[in-house]
Each structure stands twice: as structure tokens, then as C-alpha cells.
Amino acid sequence: MNNLNCSGCGVGGGMSDVVLECVMPYIHDPRDRDAVSLVCRRWYELDAITRRHVTIALCYSTSPDRLQRRFKHLESLKMKGKPRAAMFFNLIPEDWGGFVTPWVNEIAESFNCLKSLHFRRMIVKDSDLELLASSRGRVLEVLKLDKCSGFSTDGLSHIGRSCRQLRTLFLEESGIAEKDGDWLHELATNNTVLQTLNFYMTDLTKVRLEDLELLAKNCRSLVSLKISDFELLELVGFFRSASAIEEFCGGSFNEPDQPGKYAAVIFPPKLCRLGLTYMEKNVMSIVFPFASLLKKLDLLYVLLGTEDHCVLVQRCPNLEVLETRNVIGDRGLEALAQSCKRLKRLRIERGADEQEMEDVDGRVSQRGLIALAQGCLEIEYIAVYVSDITNAALEHLGAYSKNLNDFRLVLLDQEHMITDLPLDNGVRALLSGCEKLQRFGLYLRPGGLSDVGLGYIGQYSRHVRWMILGSVGESDEGLLAFSTGCPSLQKLEMRACCFTESALARAALQLTSLRYLWVHGYRETSTGHRDLLTMVRPFWNIELIPSRKVPTVNNAGQNVFDDNPAHILAYYSLAGPRTDFPDTVKPLDPAKVVAA
Amino acid sequence: MSRATVELDFFGMSKENSSSSSKSKFLNRQRSFRDIQSAISKMNPELLKSVIASGSAASNKSTPDNGNQMSSNKSFSVPSTPKQELPPFPALPVYFPLPRLNLENPLETAPLTIFYNGTVAVFDVPQDKAENILKLAEKGISKTVVEPVADPRTDHQQKLLESLDGDLPIARRKSLQRFLEKRKER
């Protein structure tokens, strides 16, 4: 039956609800869903009833109540709290905000269909986990506490005890207060369907071997296990039982002087994603038997030199994802370019600064990037810390890396002289050549990118939705030129920049898609925060973390106080200003600023 | 001492000493040199360079009348290699009196002695300038010292951007930071 209640349903009488209800479940992309919901009221309602997943990029942009009123039947929810800078020490105050409590309270009451929850960079309490377990424990299938903090293993015990349907428990990089290892015992005893368990990078040390072995026995579908430091020799039995395992990260090599012992470690047959903490050159050969099966290799926490990296990657022709430190060096990248033609994601983190701690060859420069561009044509994601760079390297990426959707480059400050700065032309070539680019990061130094170059970023970054820019440009003019472009830019992070608050405010107004702005370190002026008033507008929350001294330890090992310049955070919100500010964070109050 | 002296506990040494109101107090020379070195290592090198450079122009003929002083035209350097060229200064004995304000004549200048990087500098400064210098040293901010600064925050940011490190130090992820620290212990 044609139901014509809907106005604006198009030429020829519109579509029946039945048809629409059949089609809707196949529409997943959130931007498509957004478009659908704007057609007319009826389509809005149908979208609201049928939408399965919502991602709230910043938890303060809306409220639990608003979410509940629109999407009652939500099955999966992801939200983020603290600014990304919280992944570094001492930038964002620990109690900044992003509390899950109001959300968990609403979930306990209303969201009857919710099966999957992902909290990222938020503050979680044991009481939240207890409530979640008691109210949703029976149906919860996925729980991800991703870089969260504020809870203990007691909270996890509640989850282990009550969430018998849990397929995924993800805790990577969370700050967890460890009381004991009982939580794992609860999980291993009560669950038979677990597929993914991840407590990598959590410093949990009281996990018991018997509970891991019990888990392997009870959860025959266990496919991915990432754990904290745990002697690998003790896991021989575990690996024998957990025959379905495809991914393993963690472990430890506490007997590096007895490499022969590690020959006893036989890995499960389907293992294709691997990361072994503290692995050294003399035990590296234990991965050789199945290296050709490896799709993902995590070398971030190994103790290998440049040559070792070359030897290893040459044995991994099917590698799709590699994460390592810059000890891989240009030579390692050349080996990668030759051997790993299927490489899709490459992340090169910054190793130790002290010369003695890393290989002398352990530096990445234009040489490695050019080889990479020419050799790994399928590359989609590159994040790299370089010691030297040229425009030519970026031009090569623009020419060859046609699938690149996420590119981040940080220029380390060890070298005083960089071969080829500013990078204006290279950046232009990369942005215009890599048409699929959606995420872009560039962290340089004064002189690294001129105002013209910054203007190029604005001009040529058509589809980029997220950017982090550090130490780019020369003056406010560069920022203003930049902000006339970037048509798709939704989220902008800036650090160590030379722009005034006046320019920042004007840029925020000019960037048509901008909904989130974070700035740390800018040129302070005597008019200061008054200039931020330029960007005051409805639904736009502006928050400040005034400059403060942060206790830290310097290179000489002394306790010192570091100057931490002011942060500006501004974002669109339907929920009005926050009501849970800690002392270190202040909302921008136009009345107070004008009076000052 | 014949003229009024500004006695300021430049490096906070008096906190470590038992209370003594003795005007001229000679500490154990070795210990205080080590303490000076560590205190100076916390100070911003740019600051010290500018202070010493401006001081050397102003006070190349000052001679404090203490006990074992050297005459001003004899150059003397502590045996360690200075990193940059600096005009030679007379060496002075280590002398750390307790804090005491000079109330008699605030504008009158008095010697301010700084040990840095194997060299010694003496400046004749009035009390308020000396206090400025001490405050700066405490904060460790890079600033030009001699004139009062009109907009300290702008200059701070300028220096922050122009210093050799370029800008804010590039942060490292917590997980990686912890790994690198644990690795040192292995």
C-alpha cells in the first residue's frame, strides 16, 4: 500500500514504508544515514528505529537523554572523551572529564537492545562496571574500555562474572588499578564464547597462568589474545590448547641468555598476527617457521636492531600491517619495499633519543620513504617519525601512493639541519596526488612550512576530515589562507603554533565543516582570550586549560616543573556547556572575559 | 664590609644549613660547588648567556671586598672547559650568606656573583634588579633580564618558538615511554 503521509517523498507518489523498511537495514554508512534522516519526518523516524550503530565523536556533544530519545533500539555505541593528547603524559589533566557514568546510567535504564559498547579515552569507575554487568550483563557481547582509566580489577570481576555472552573484552592501554587476578578467573570460568581478549599495555601482572589455560580450554573460539608481560616459556601449554588463535601479542623473554629454551614454544597453526615483547635477535628465529603466513607484525616493544628488522621483514612477503620503532631505519624500509608488496599499514614510532639505546642506523629519512612509495603501492596508512625529509619524498608519495587515506609525519628535532625545508611543494604534491586522503598529520618545526605551504594544505586537502598540525606556518596570514580551504575538515588539532587567538578564532569561523578544534601552544598576546570572543556562537562550547606547571622528570633524571602552555578546546554541542569541569579546565565565559 | 651588601640566598642553600646568623659564612667548598653546578644546570642556558653577556659589559671593573679576592685584572678560570668564549673574570671565593634585605639604600648597587660553566661573573646590581634575576632563575624562563619586560608572555612565547628545540617538545605515547623506561632496567 502506498502510504503518502510523507511529504517530499519525490516525484511519482513516493515509496511505501514496507519498501523502505526492507532497504534501510542495508544502509550502514553514517553519512548515508544522516542524509536519509533529513528527507522527511517519516524517513527520520524509520532511520531512528533501524539505526544499529552510533559513534559519538565527543561525549559532550550530546546527552544520554537525547541519544535515548532518538535511537531507542541502538545495538552498538561508541564514544570518545578526552582529547587525543591524553595519550601522552602530562598534557591533559587526568581528571579532565569524559565520565561514562551518566551514559551507563541511561544504558541501564533504556537501551534494551544494546549489545556492544566502546568507550575511548574516558573515565570509568568500578561502580559503572558493576551497574553495566547487573543491568546488561546477560546480553552484552562486546565491551571495549579503550585507553580508559579510573577503574580496578574489581570492576572487571563483575564483568567476568555476569557477562557470559561476551565475545570481546578489550582493555588495551587502559589505566587499571590492579588488586588481584580474579577477574580473569571469573571470565575463564563463566564464559565459553569469548573470541577476543585484550589487556595489552595495561601493566597487569597478577594474571595467573592457570586462568589463561582455563580460558583456552573453555573458549574454543578464542581467536585473538593480547596480554601484558608474561614469560613466553610458561605459555607453551596455553598455545597447545588454544588452537584457533590467529592473533597473539604480549608475553616476554625473561631468559634471553638461554635462547635455545624458546625452541620449545610452538605457536598455534593459524597464527598470522603477532607481537612479542622484548624479543631479541637471538630468539627471533622462533617466528621463522610461519613468518610467511604473517599478516600483521608488532615490533614496537622488541629489542631488535636495523639489520634484524631487514632479516625479519624479508621473510614476510604477506605482511599487511607493520608497527615498529624508527630503529627499522631507511635500510629496513628498503627491505620492506622489496619484500612486502601487500603492505597496507605502516606505523613507525619514535625510539629512544639516547644514542646508546638504539642502532646507529635507526633513523628514517627521505631515502626510506621514497623506497616505500615506490615499492608498496597498496599502502593506505603511514605514520612515521623522521629524522630528515625532503620535498622529493613527499612528491614520490603523491605520485605512487594512490590508496593512501591516512598520512602522518613528524619531523624529529635531533638534527639541526634538515636537507630540504620548507616542505611547501612536497605537501602540495602529496595532497593533490593522494586523492583518497581523509586523515592528515604534519608536525614540523619553525621554517618547516611557510604560510604559502599552509595555504596549499587548505587548497589541496579536499576530502581530509581530520588534521593535526604542529609547528607549521609563519604567521596568522598562513592560518587564514588555510582556513579558506579544507572544505571537509571536521576535526582540527594544532600544537606549538605561532598563531594568535584572533587568527584562531577567525579560522574556526571560516572552516565550513569544523566541529572540533584543539590548540595547545599558540602566540599569546595582551588581548588574549578576548580575541576568542570572535568565535562565540550558538552551540559552540569553548573551554580553556590555562597554562600551568606540570611536574615531570627531565633527561638528567631530576624532578622539574615544565611549563605547559594553555589549551583551547572548542566543539559543537547540543547539550550546552559541560557541568563537570575539574579545577584545571575553565569554560570561556564571555561576560567574565569582557569584564577582565 | 664597608659598603652595604645585598645578601640574597641565590641558590637556596640556607635551607640546608643549620640556622646561623653569621654574616660571612664559608660553606664547605666542594659541596657547594656541586650544588651550584646542579642548580645552574637547571637554569636556562639562554638566560645565563644573556645575563653574563650584559653583565660583562657593565661590571668589568667591579671588585667585591671580601677576604681572599683576586685582583680584577688577573684572569682566572676554574679547570673545566667552557662551551663558549667568555671574557675572563676574577675568581671569587664561595660565599653564601643568609637572606637579609638591605633597607638602608635600595638603589645602591652591590655585587652579584654567578658561577656558570666553569666561569665566574660579577655584576654590580641594585636590589630590585637582583631580585628580578633571582625570580627569573627560579622560574627558569628565557627572558632578557636587564630591562623590565613590557609583555612577558609574548616574549616567553617568542623565545619558546625561537629556541633550538624549536617549540614544544614532541610528546611520546605513554605506552612507548613506559617501554623505553622498562628497557633501561633490563
Automatic annotation (TrEMBL), chain A:
<feature type="domain" description="COI1 F-box">
    <location>
        <begin position="14"/>
        <end position="53"/>
    </location>
</feature>
<protein>
    <submittedName>
        <fullName>F-BOX/TPR REPEAT PROTEIN POF3</fullName>
    </submittedName>
</protein>
<feature type="domain" description="Transport inhibitor response 1">
    <location>
        <begin position="73"/>
        <end position="119"/>
    </location>
</feature>
<dbReference type="InterPro" id="IPR041101">
    <property type="entry name" value="Transp_inhibit"/>
</dbReference>
<dbReference type="GO" id="GO:0019005">
    <property type="term" value="C:SCF ubiquitin ligase complex"/>
</dbReference>
<dbReference type="InterPro" id="IPR032675">
    <property type="entry name" value="LRR_dom_sf"/>
</dbReference>
<dbReference type="Pfam" id="PF18791">
    <property type="entry name" value="Transp_inhibit"/>
</dbReference>
<dbReference type="GO" id="GO:0031146">
    <property type="term" value="P:SCF-dependent proteasomal ubiquitin-dependent protein catabolic process"/>
</dbReference>
<dbReference type="InterPro" id="IPR041567">
    <property type="entry name" value="COI1_F-box"/>
</dbReference>
<dbReference type="Pfam" id="PF18511">
    <property type="entry name" value="F-box_5"/>
</dbReference>
TrEMBL record, chain B:
<protein>
    <recommendedName>
        <fullName>Protein TIFY</fullName>
    </recommendedName>
</protein>
<dbReference type="Pfam" id="PF06200">
    <property type="entry name" value="tify"/>
</dbReference>
<dbReference type="InterPro" id="IPR018467">
    <property type="entry name" value="CCT_CS"/>
</dbReference>
<keyword id="KW-1184">Jasmonic acid signaling pathway</keyword>
<dbReference type="GO" id="GO:2000022">
    <property type="term" value="P:regulation of jasmonic acid mediated signaling pathway"/>
</dbReference>
<dbReference type="GO" id="GO:0009611">
    <property type="term" value="P:response to wounding"/>
</dbReference>
<comment type="function">
    <text>Repressor of jasmonate responses.</text>
</comment>
<feature type="domain" description="Tify">
    <location>
        <begin position="105"/>
        <end position="139"/>
    </location>
</feature>
<feature type="region of interest" description="Disordered">
    <location>
        <begin position="1"/>
        <end position="28"/>
    </location>
</feature>
<dbReference type="Pfam" id="PF09425">
    <property type="entry name" value="Jas_motif"/>
</dbReference>
<dbReference type="InterPro" id="IPR040390">
    <property type="entry name" value="TIFY/JAZ"/>
</dbReference>
<dbReference type="InterPro" id="IPR010399">
    <property type="entry name" value="Tify_dom"/>
</dbReference>
<feature type="compositionally biased region" description="Polar residues">
    <location>
        <begin position="56"/>
        <end position="83"/>
    </location>
</feature>
<comment type="similarity">
    <text>Belongs to the TIFY/JAZ family.</text>
</comment>
<dbReference type="GO" id="GO:0005634">
    <property type="term" value="C:nucleus"/>
</dbReference>
<feature type="region of interest" description="Disordered">
    <location>
        <begin position="54"/>
        <end position="84"/>
    </location>
</feature>
<feature type="compositionally biased region" description="Low complexity">
    <location>
        <begin position="14"/>
        <end position="25"/>
    </location>
</feature>
<dbReference type="GO" id="GO:0031347">
    <property type="term" value="P:regulation of defense response"/>
</dbReference>
<keyword id="KW-0539">Nucleus</keyword>
